[in-house]
Amino acid sequence: MPKPTPLLPESDAREAALFFVVAALCFLAVLATLTARGTYTAARAWSAQVEGEMTVRLSDTDRRGAEEAATIIRGMSGVRSADVLSQEDLERLLEPSFGPGGIPAGVPMPLLIAVETAPNSVTTALAITNALTAQGFNAVAESHADYAAEARSALGTLRVAAIGIVVLLTATAIAVIAFATHAALLARKDIVDVLHLAGAEDRFIAQLFERRFWTLGLKAGAAGSVAALAATALIIFSAQSSASQNQLLPQLSLDFWDLVILAVTPIAAGLAARLAAGGTVNHALKAVL
């Protein structure tokens, strides 16, 4: 018995273009999803790193006075360490702003004390400021947790934007598949009419398109996932070989959950293609044909 000719032949040139579009959308969606996870990882790691850290700025005092202020801070409850930063430490911290040449001569710089408190410590930046002010120091203490909260908020906005991009790309892929399905159905209206005359129900015809686009979605999703895997691996390799890394940028890692996303994408693409094709055919057969 000869093999029946499908409504959408595998050699159809239009399918190659549709395959490319769906694969590209899957590629972008996977990258956006991995970026969303990376922003969460970056925010969590950076927040954990700066939690409990403070910086005390001292003005109108010398190095000896700064050491005395550090001794006072170390004597407060819940303080693990308080160290006066050297000139080399200051230049290293300010190098991103002033460049490798260091701090320009003549620029007044306050003395800084790096403070680390124990977890759940009740000592606040305000308490340190008040304690030093009471001893006659012109000091201001600032908690790094305040900056961490701002960074988490900014990265949270980026994460929401990435999720929005994933939703938009998914909707675009469904719309493209629906359009392609409708065009293929209209192009084969004569075959559909013959099937109807032979007693075929609309559901049978819809299943033909569902199976065809399910296969196309699986293949395109797999191609997009492989491309996203290669791009992510290249980004990770470039970041690891770079001399400097910005810890506030999304941290791509290809961990277990990243690999799960890559593995699930072809299945999700196939299901989306199948549902889009089936819904489009059922609606078209009832409303148009």
UniProtKB/TrEMBL annotation:
The keyword Cytoplasm does not apply. The chain crosses the membrane at residues 16-36, 160-185, 213-236, 256-277. Keywords: Cell cycle, Cell division, Cell membrane, Membrane, Transmembrane, Transmembrane helix. GO terms for cellular component: cell division site; plasma membrane. One of its GO terms (biological process) is cell division. Pfam families: FtsX. InterPro entries: ABC3_permease_C (IPR003838), FtsX (IPR004513). The keyword ATP-binding does not apply. It is found in: Cell membrane. It is a multi-pass membrane protein. Residues 165-277 form the ABC3 transporter permease C-terminal domain. PANTHER family: CELL DIVISION PROTEIN FTSX. This is Cell division protein FtsX. It comes from Henriciella mobilis.
